[in-house]
Amino acid sequence: MIAQIAGTGFYVPDRRVTNQELASFVHLDDAGIRKRTGIQERRWAGKDQAASDLATEAVRAAMEQAGCAAKDLDAIVLATTSPDMWFPSTACLVQKNLHARNAFAMDVAASCCGFLFALSVAEQFIRSGQAKTVAAVATEVKSRFLNRSDPATAILFGDGAGAVVLKPSAGESGLLSIRLYSDGSRSGMIQIPAGGSRRPISQQSLAEELHVIRMKGGSLFKAAVQRLTDVTHEILKTHHLQPSDIHHFVFHQANARILSAVAKRIQIPMDRLVMTLDRYGNTSSASLPMALAHLFRSGRVRPGDLIFLGAFGGGLNWGGALVRS
Q: Do the bridges between strand 104-108 and strand 75-79 make them parallel or antiparallel, or are there none, so unpaired?
């Protein structure tokens, strides 16, 4: 038995942060930021909003589209690297908010690739028969972990959440394939060095700004393009498909240069890619389900369409999935 996407949803905070607002901090103008990233604006959470709040609204939207209630959820699998707190899990806080008393709840952490990891876990609960209705959600409030004078990161990241509700498939539609990979030997490419048990927050770590995102942009760009290209070819080859057979490509919305380079490598036109980067920025693990929700709500998806999902992020982690609508 395979799992199908019964509903999608997303949520972003109200506050719009334009390139003009950031220009004075990072010493880049609007045109420079758009050229480097493809981003025009991003959303940042309000002071009283946390990752669980965004996730709750995204799951609610997905449940509404799926035609199910909170009591119908058997499990909530949540991806984040900006949790409300270290414990309890952010998933448990979402379960509380939804009053989903019949659902067990768990977090996974795989940086920008987190949604694919959550989707894989959720799909296996469906496939094994342990659950019939599962919410997979990714949520991030990365704006709390930025050095706002660092142009490498301050202009990139936004806040948001995206979710899907999975149910057993009665036909040919569903998740056809998921592949996940990790390479911990390259963990230093993007990280928040302090705040964990290795290096707890201290006056020294704060002074050295080790509690914010640090990124080696050039190395990360090369690795992202190569890994996303490889996993796309691998999954398509497994299913005896060509890129031209895929109706929609939904990749993690990292930056426009990465997306353009991947499209060129796999030889597809840019209009085959779902793009939300310009409006929301890089929302880390949430960007993939947010873009997927936009696609499903656009009216462009027809029954039987093939959709490719791909993501890459810190860890390093990367992966892909093939979905039939």
A: parallel
